Amino acid sequence: MSEDTNEAAVPSKQLPEGHHFHLKNGDHHAELNKTIQDLVLSTDSYFVYVASDHSIQWSTTDEHQAPEYFGEILSRVAILEARSGFIEDPNTLGNIRRQIAEGLARCLGNHRKSDCFALLDEVDRLLAARNKETAWKWYFTAAYKVTGACAVGLVLLWLARAYAVSFIGRAAFEVSLGILCGAIGALLSVTTRASRIVMDANAGQQIHQLEGLSRIGAGLIGALFVALSFQGGLIMGGVQFPGSRLAMMLAFCIAAGASERLVPSLVDKIERSALSADRH
Fold first, then answer.
1. Is residue 2 part of a domain?
2. Beta carbons within 8 Å of 253's beta carbon, 6+ residues apart
3. With contact defined as beta carbons under 8 Å apart, do 28 and 16 qualify?
4. pLDDT recorded at residue 197
5. How many domains does the chain have?
6. For residue 240, what pLDDT is reported?
7. DSSP state string for 151-168
8. Domain range holding 62?
9. 38-53 pLDDT per residue, tens
């Protein structure tokens, strides 16, 4: 049973300590110092309710006989209550906590074990889906915002290419375009691998945003490395091919942002070349 002595709500009706018969929503339970927000069940021998702070509260009389599987249910209720902590919307959180409390109430009412666990299993599945949805929203919102800014920068840089080339030079201009293309490749990568990304909304919003930003940042850095390698002749150096050389470099930069193997392979190639040159 959860306890919290810091609730500041002013009770509409003060119930005497130990009194848990005929409870109703809005009552203040003095024994637990909780205000009842959603009463699930109240009998002469036990009660279960969701408090105004969305915690699940329960109590029984000394005469009440809980079933032998009560400990299992209580552990499952505590786990589900903790796993639902990521939900920010009060109404959604209240509904989830009520469903969890319903499972506890059925247990205290000596319903069949399978019925109690069936209800809690359904809550578990609902939480898993909601957890994934929330974590994805945090992760991809951050990733799409950065990629969108890079895409706008790419378009603006291309529209102002005549001025940009005269100001920073053609090589720097092309490298800049390549870096911005890396963000597009990184977003493509995280989008196509979304089903394999393991995330947990209970870790918090900030860590998911940082992870999304770091993935796009890695794509930008990888594209920078590839663009410089392309300009230095380490990629496609001396190869004659039809079409635009700039378009080829940008395609490589997008691939660098999307691939987890391209840049490390290129680094290994440069390292081997450097070591070979030192020997000679």
1. no
2. 177, 178, 179, 181, 182, 185, 223, 226, 227
3. no
4. 79
5. 2
6. 64
7. HHHHHHHHHTHHHHHHHH
8. 14-111
9. 999 888 888 999 999 9
- Tell me which residue has tokens 């002595």: 5
Is position 120 within any domain? no
CA gap 154, 143 in Å, rounded: 16
Q: Are residues 64 and 190 in the same domain?
A: no
> Which residues, 6 or more positions from 17, have their beta carbon under 8 angstroms from its beta carbon?
30, 31
- Same-domain status, 139 and 61: no
Q: Give the pLDDT confidence of 137-152 residue by residue, as tens digits.
A: 999 999 999 999 999 9
> Token pair of 14, please?
């003060």
Rounded to whole angstroms, how far apart are CA atoms 62 and 50?
22
Mean pLDDT of 49-74: 92
> Among candidates 193, 188, 270, 276, which has minimal Cα distance to 225?
270
| pTM of the model as a whole | 0.74
**What is the mean pLDDT of the segment spanning 15-38?**
73
Which residues are CB-contacts of 96 (< 8 A; sequence separation ≥ 6)?
84, 87, 123, 126, 127, 130
**Is-contact 40 46, C-beta < 8 A?**
no
Same domain, 74 and 144: no
As a whole number, mean pLDDT of residues 210-226 equals 92
User: Half-sphere exposure (CA, 13 Å, Cβ side) for 233?
Assistant: 4
Say if residue 238's pLDDT is above 70.
Answer: no
Residue 225 forms part of a structural domain: yes
For the record, the structure tokens of 173 come out as 């201009």
Within this chain, do residues 152 and 255 fall inside the same structural domain, yes or no? Answer: yes
